Write a sequence for this structure.
């Protein structure tokens, strides 16, 4: 079979940037800052492909910052190569630091497919016209949870214990990395800027896990699938962390298509994904990703995210609780 290329456009994570960036961030941010961004990488702009008019343009697939740029490349390269072989196409893997950037590219038709978070899917579905293609099934379920993690050696056992301490969110639009802890805090009649001593954004779940493990932050909320992935594949990431709370289950981050992507092409890709676990090579790749199989998507899987957003909006209108002495 003729080999196909996987073209990579990414924002790379320079060695040592995580620890240095977080250390500088913690030293310099103010207590009353609500949103402090930590730039872990130099973002390489994604140019519009020049061969759009060719008879067989590449398939452009974006992977949002669910894992770090380096890890994402290693994990998804085999999947994209597999699809490329089956489709007879070159593939272009596009990596962006934030979910919002991927949403914009999908909405403008600058990329064809995207692996995005459940939160950005729910909030961006109507605005950007996402079309659900497939959902991963992991351990027999198409759902996942948010984990609230702390350093293993810390004395924290409840969310309430973290008042006045440093907390890491992942992305401003992340479901497990921001929306869930916002909801938990709203149920306590408080907000992050009032509850935590300092707040920062890591822009990937593995960065958050590493920051907690190294004691650079006191706690973080992370994607449970990613924590479980590292617990099995690279436990050095998770060995120094401890889970103190898990959320209710939500629909796993889906694969979506741009509304401008042709329906016939969408159907071809769905057929490949839904039968991938029946092919020996496909099954091997899925096993490395810790995915059982891809299944047909159901929009109602994400109703729990919608309900949480609605409840959060109502709770925000209630008076804040006075801070503890």
């Amino acid at each position: 079979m003729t080999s196909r290329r996987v073209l990579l456009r990414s924002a790379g994570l320079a060695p040592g940037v995580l620890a240095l960036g977080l250390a500088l961030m913690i030293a310099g941010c103010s207590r009353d800052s609500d949103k402090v961004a930590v730039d872990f990488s130099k973002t390489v702009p994604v140019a519009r492909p020049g061969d759009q008019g060719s008879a067989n343009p590449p398939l452009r697939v974006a992977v949002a910052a669910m894992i770090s740029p380096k890890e994402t490349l290693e994990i998804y390269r085999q999947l994209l190569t597999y699809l490329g072989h089956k489709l007879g196409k070159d593939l272009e893997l596009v990596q962006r630091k934030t979910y919002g950037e991927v949403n914009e590219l999908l909405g403008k038709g600058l990329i064809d497919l995207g692996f995005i978070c459940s939160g950005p899917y729910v909030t961006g579905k109507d605005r950007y016209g996402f079309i659900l293609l497939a959902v991963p099934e992991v351990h027999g379920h198409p759902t996942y949870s948010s984990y609230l993690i702390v350093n293993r050696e810390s004395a924290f056992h409840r969310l309430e214990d973290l008042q006045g301490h440093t907390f890491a969110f992942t992305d401003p639009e992340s479901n497990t990395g921001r929306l869930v802890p916002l909801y938990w805090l709203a149920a306590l009649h408080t907000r992050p800027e009032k509850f935590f001593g300092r707040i920062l954004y890591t822009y990937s779940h593995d960065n958050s896990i590493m920051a907690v493990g190294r004691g650079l932050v006191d706690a973080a909320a992370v994607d449970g699938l990613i924590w479980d992935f590292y617990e099995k594949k690279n436990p050095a990431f998770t060995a120094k962390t401890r889970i103190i709370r898990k959320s209710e289950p939500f629909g796993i981050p889906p694969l979506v298509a741009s509304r401008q992507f042709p329906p016939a092409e969408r159907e071809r890709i769905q057929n490949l994904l839904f039968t991938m676990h029946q092919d020996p090579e496909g099954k091997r790749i899925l096993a490395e990703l810790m995915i059982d199989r891809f299944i047909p998507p159901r929009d109602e899987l994400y109703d729990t995210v919608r309900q949480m957003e609605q409840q959060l909006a109502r709770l925000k209108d209630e008076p804040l609780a006075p801070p503890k002495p």
